[in-house]
Amino acid sequence: MRPTPGFELSGSGRRIVIDETSGRLPAAEERDGRALTSWTALTESGWTDARPALPIRIIGG
Q1: Could you report the average pLDDT of every consecutive run of 10 residues in the chain (61 residues)?
Q2: Which of 10, 26, 32, 42 has the fewest CB atoms within 10 Å, measured from its CB?
């Protein structure tokens, strides 16, 4: 696996990956030390004026 540019969020192991050619954010990943534990692909992103829909209830809260 080749290294990809990205940002880690405050030493949490959560990292946002950046596509060098387009500047888009195609993925997010979580690591436990060096082991990859979770990976999420972003299928669409863009600007909007719409307000986000909030969940009806909080799960686990």
Answers
A1: 70 82 84 87 84 74 54
A2: 10
